[in-house]
Amino acid sequence: MTADTIAAPRSPRTPARKSGPNLEKWGWIYMRVSGVALIILIFGHLFVNLMLGEGISGIDFAFVAGKFASPFWQWWDVLMLWLALIHGANGMRTIVNDYVTHETTRRVLVWALWLSAGFLIVLGTLVVFTFDPCLGIESSSTDWLIETCAAL
Ligand code: HEM
């Protein structure tokens, strides 16, 4: 084994199967199904934001405000957020279970993963659905923003 090779897992965790739903199996299936959905969501997101219209130079506050005004893009972004965070946290849980030998440390890390993913999911979902470009505009704001918000 060379120095840059990742060591084989030292703590393959194989807890005795209990009755009830096989969560490991559903987690395995989730990684594949969410992976396929994420290809569409992530590359669709990149294509629309970076290649259509003015491309990357067209991204500014107005662009984001315009997208978040549409329920279609709100749901697109929220779906991407939920699927990617649960996918990432579950993937990291697999790695932690494989490599962390100390049981208490493993438990703390897995809890920290789900807590941080849960916090970001709640925060991100709130931001997407409560985003208001006119909240707190002042006379120092750009002209188009004052005009647009005054017209609403
Ligand atoms: C293009 C979209 C994506 C696809 C198709 C995809 C696909 C997959 C698949 C099939 C696995 C399971 C691999 C295995 O069990 O051996 C996996 C694992 C994983 N994914 Fe993704 N994924 C995508 C995006 C993401 C994103 C956005 C994140 C981070 C938020 C992420 C983080 C992870 C992690 C941490 C693992 C665990 C790796 C491991 O077990 O060694 N993936 N991915």
UniProtKB/TrEMBL annotation:
Keywords: Heme, Iron, Membrane, Metal-binding, Transmembrane, Transmembrane helix. Pfam families: Sdh_cyt. The keyword tRNA-binding does not apply. InterPro entries: SQR/QFR_C/D, SuccDH_FuR_B_TM-su. GO terms for molecular function: metal ion binding. It comes from the Bacteria. It is found in: Membrane. The chain crosses the membrane at residues 29-52, 72-96, 108-131. Its main location: membrane. SUPFAM superfamilies: Fumarate reductase respiratory complex transmembrane subunits. One of its GO terms (cellular component) is membrane. This is Succinate dehydrogenase.
